[in-house]
Amino acid sequence: xxxxxxxxxxxxxxxxxxxxxxxxxxxxxxxxxxxxxxxxxxxxxxxxxxxxxxxxxxxxxxxxxxxxxxxxxxxxxxxxxxxxxxxxxxxxxxxxxxxxxxxxxxxxxxxxxxxxxxxxxxxxxxxxxxxxxxxxxxxxxxxxxxxxxxxxxxxxxxxxxxxxxxxxxxxxxxxxxxxxxxxxxxxxxxxxxxxxx
Length: 197
Description:
The structure is a single chain. With 197 residues, this protein is mainly alpha-helical. It folds into 2 domains: 9-80; 106-184, no CATH class. The chain is 67% helix and 7% strand. The protein has 6 helices and 3 strands. The protein has helices at residues 9-21, 27-48, 52-59, 62-79, 86-124, 161-192, and strands at residues 132-137, 140-145, 154-155. It has a 3-stranded antiparallel beta sheet with strand order 2-1-3. A hairpin with a 2-residue loop joins strand 1 and strand 2. Helix 5 runs antiparallel to helix 6. The radius of gyration is 27 Å and the shape is elongated.
């Protein structure tokens, strides 16, 4: 028995997307999960007097919901696997996944901070020209904002540091955006192609 009215196109679309995301599972498992979610949506809509759109929003993206079911299925299969190393392998896969995601996210944040620092250099150079710049000292160089560059330092860029800093900020922004998009694509592709034990 279908607990929803035949006119709930929004729910049908959600369930279709959920079913599509659950493709790595068998047809019977997929149908059971979709039926469970369909019943849940109907009950929540009836009990809370909330609209279907609100209930669907509370469930989140169908691909993310499917990912939770697929992860659970993978771990269940790993625990029930015939080899003793299937569960540790599944757990190691998740650890590597988490570390990779953390490192990519940290790199994107760091690139964003660099971008903001470059913008600060570009904005502050006309305001405090003696404290902002690119200085060459014996044996090394210093770029940025200094309280006192020192007498042995030679400032080399002058006001050219403004466009150079803005260009570096743009490059940092583009690199951070590209990294976020690349990581997002990788995460999405992983959620679509999951090796099941």
